Amino acid sequence: MPDQIEPITPREISVNDVPFAQVEQNGPKGFFDQLKGFWVTFATMFKKVNTVQYPEVKEPTAERFHGRHQLNRHEDGLEKCIGCELCAWACPADAILVEGDNNTEENRMSPGERYGKVYQINYLRCIFCGLCIEACPTRALTMTNEYELADETREKLIFEKSDLLAPLTQGMLMPPHPMYPGMDDSNYYRGEVKGSHPSQDVNK
Amino acid sequence: MTTMQEVEMISLVIDGFEVSVPKGTLVIRAAEKLGIQIPRFCDHPLLDPVGACRQCLVDIEINGRAFPKPQASCTIPVEPGMIVKTQLTSAVAEKAQRGVMELLLVNHPLDCPVCDKGGECPLQNQAMSNGQGETRFEGVKRTFQKPINISSQVLLDRERCVLCARCTRFSEQIASDPFITLNERGALQQVGIYENQPFESYFSGNAVQICPVGALTGASYRFRARPFDLVSTPSACEHCASGCDMRTDVRRGKTLRRLAGDDASVNEEWNCDKGRWAFKYVTALDRLTTPMVRNSDGVLVEASWPEALAVAAAGLSAHKSAVLVGGRATYEDAYGYSKFARIALGTNDIDFRARLSSDEEREFLAAHVVGSTTTYRDIDLADQVVLVAFEPEEESPIVFLRLNKAFRKRALKVKAIATKLSIGVEKLKGEFVKVAPGAEASALSSQTLTNKSLILVGERAAESAGLLSAVAALAQSSGAKIAWIPRRAGERGALEAGAIGNLLPGGRPVSDAAARVDIAAVWSTQSLPSENGKNSNEIIAAVHSGAIGALVVGGVDPLDNEASAQMLAALDKAFVVSLEIAPSAVTARANVILPVAAVTEKSGSFLNWEGRPRKFDAAVADTHNRSDLRILSMIADEMDRTISLATVTAAAKEIASLGRWDGAKSSLNKVSAATTPSLSPDQAIITSWRRLLDLGTLQAGEENLAATSRRTVAVISPKRADDLGIKDGDRLTISTQQGSVTLPALVEEIHDDAVWAPRNSRGSQLLSQLGVAHGAVVKVAKA
Ligand code: SF4
Ligand code: SF4
Ligand code: SF4
Ligand code: SF4
Ligand code: FES
């Protein structure tokens, strides 16, 4: 309803009304003062160079640099994430989306009853504060040092669980598979599972 | 019970503030009145106090004499001169509460990350507000086997239980289903079920809702979401005419759970498991999304909206048409159908009763039900309640809870005129007046009631000729009140909206010229059809005789009818415009299918059996589905007979502006009861009702809920069992001309002439399998 919009009243003060104050402008310093300035520039040419020729050359980041997230695995390959959503809750930027689900005997992704079925981090929102890492009760979520997170579309910057999961290393089996025989979820959380057992290899 | 009793007020001081509350109030509630929150677990305003958790300890002093130790404020009623010091002003109370919390947490597992209650847990919250951050416990926590299914729908995690006894008290005091108890003592104390008897109560979901920790969880919501994911919308239940207030929690366009809302005058804080858990049908059913039109080859093909509307309008204009609308329509939608029939189709041939019905019932509704103001409060005040063709626990569970409350609190006398003694009536310790199916009317007539009594009549009364006449006569001679309690949520609304042949909206009789003028004025039309319309059976017959050529059908299941074969044939014959959410026997025969929004996708209201509006908003906002009302309005526009009801708000406004009819009601012509047939030894009279949990369409897609439904059995009396040589568990065959069902027999309290089976349960769909459901003679034999 345009007739309800109040007309903008002209500002009381216009720029021209502001009193003009003369600012004192000093002229160039003496010749030697100028030479001192140029000397700094000149001397720098012989110092060690700090810039690198990125992207041809890459320098390692600081050890604790906050980079892309990673969803870790237990030593036998089961996922550490239990789908608790605490990371999503902690996130000040609302960048994480998690949906949990039930582990079943046929489909076990993590020890215990619950696993993260959907896991997404939106890198258009993430500010790399690391609060999610602090919130994670199972150390499932950590940050890597990877910082190359640019892409052409917005969709590509929403990372799915498959993009975030840590790769399988020596001794790990691809879930779903059962827990290590004789161990339960608390053994896993205490780090007592050191690798997979042949009987867990049910996917072959 | 007088309503205007003087309440004695008592003044006391809590934390230095004076407050006066009615006598008998508990200290914890008096504190609430001042806005002082005392931590608690076991306390629940609708359950009797037990003082089980000890979290609510406060310091109390009466007339200068202090209790030596802190007391549980949830068990102590206020007294004059009492001085209470809560954790806010008393270090002793504060320390006591801290200590209790510490003890509670000693054996509590660190389950928060995987616990469904996390984020909305009274234990989490109160441990933060009234507990201490650090644990001093270094021992090993007690452990139990992780969740055990106490029913297919409810899981129990005993490690998390704080032994507050809310669940057991609910089951015993509110639902009268004492299937869970506290077993063992000390650290091993735990909630348990009896051997071989799962927690199969129709109300088990309430125990899940009131459990103050995550010890009881529902299988369908398990691990699904956290509170911050959910968008909650206040809503109303679409499953029955009790009219529960509910809350629907949606995550990204998908309903994840429903909780009982809090409405002290209707459902208090409870609901039934059907209302709580049967919501997946919206997504589970194979929903219709685009309009479809039958092409010249007789095949249904997808069509655009304008095209489908044009075909529908042309077909309806070309024939004499009628409307069949099911009892699930909202009040506003039913009003739309009612106005559409009168204005667009120019007929009174409309009937919302998509079930067994009679003309006697139609007259009864017009004479005694439309506009009636009997409410739940009347149950609270009645001196006696008579149940007629009505099984509250199965057909309107909240009415059952109210009856049960009145029974437990003041020994309300309940009398059931029925053929079979039901579990519900047994729980109410009701008097069972055993009659043969069809003989209810005479048994009812011999009852003596007072003007404080209440007659609760179910929709099944229409199946027994003369019964509704007897109800009306008894109410008249005794002064007792009548409440008609249909099963479906929309029936009362449809009645008030005039979606029936003998009434216009607001209870105006079609036969009354003044009433027609009233409506015609608001609808800005010259005149309205003045003949009473046909009922649903007559409409079907008229299709067969060729008098009616087109039908508008919304939310009707043709198999809910005794003459289902004729109904299906009529649908084949007529030009059918079907407004449906999912493919059905109607859409398969329709000429035009117009997809409509499900209840969660639109706003509107239902009128529950009391006639009380139960408003709701769209819980899932971003679907493109339109309400029935909007679609009817579009068809009417296309027919050039506009009904101008584009939105629910417009309909609600128009209904409000119409107001109620204050003229004379039409009267009920007395119908006399049929004589009971004589039976040969292998014959019986069938009777049945629908169970709360059965094969209803709106329960589709919820396996866990279906698994808690009661066992399908055929019930016969001990005498008949003897005659047939049948024991419990033997199989019994019930047969008619049309077909037969074979079910395990259960020998129970039932009239000797009768056999009972559930009307629409797995293995026993009487209307489609036998073609009869009540009062007909069937053959029974040992299978
Ligand atoms: S690093 Fe911070 S912003 Fe990024 S996902 Fe984690 S909590 Fe959110
Ligand atoms: S990553 Fe950690 S905090 Fe996030 S859902 Fe998984 S277990 Fe929970
Ligand atoms: S299961 Fe829940 S409601 Fe029942 S006693 Fe335990 S904590 Fe209380
Ligand atoms: S009692 Fe009726 S209204 Fe209430 S939740 Fe159950 S089905 Fe819905
Ligand atoms: S709330 Fe008072 S003892 Fe539990």
Q: How would you sum up this structure, described in words?
A:
The complex is a heterodimer of chains A (204) and B (783). With 204 residues, chain A is α+β, with helices and mostly antiparallel strands. Chain A has five helices and five strands. In chain A, the strands form two sheets. In chain A, strands 2-3-5 form a three-stranded antiparallel β-sheet. With 783 residues, chain B is α/β, with parallel strands linked by helices. Chain B contains 25 helices and 38 strands. In chain B, a hairpin with a 2-residue loop joins strand 1 and strand 2. Chain B is globular and about 85 Å long. Classes of the chains: A alpha+beta (204), B alpha/beta (783). Bound molecules: iron/sulfur cluster (SF4) (4 copies) and FE2/S2 (inorganic) cluster (FES). One iron/sulfur cluster (SF4) binds at residues 90-93, 95-96, 121, 126-132 of chain A.
Give the names of the bound compounds. iron/sulfur cluster, FE2/S2 (inorganic) cluster
Shape of chain A: elongated
Secondary structure class of chain B reads: alpha/beta
- DSSP summary, beta strand count of chain A: 5
Give the low-pLDDT segments of chain B.
Answer: none
Distance between the termini of chain B: 54 Å
Instruction: Work out the strand percent of chain B.
Output: 15-25%
Q: Strand percentage of chain A, roughly?
A: 5-15%
Task: Give the biggest beta sheet of chain A.
Answer: 3 strands, antiparallel
Query: Which sequence of strands runs across the widest sheet of chain B?
Result: 16-15-28-27-26-17-18
Quaternary structure annotation: heterodimer
Number of strands of chain B: 38
Overall, the morphology of chain B is globular
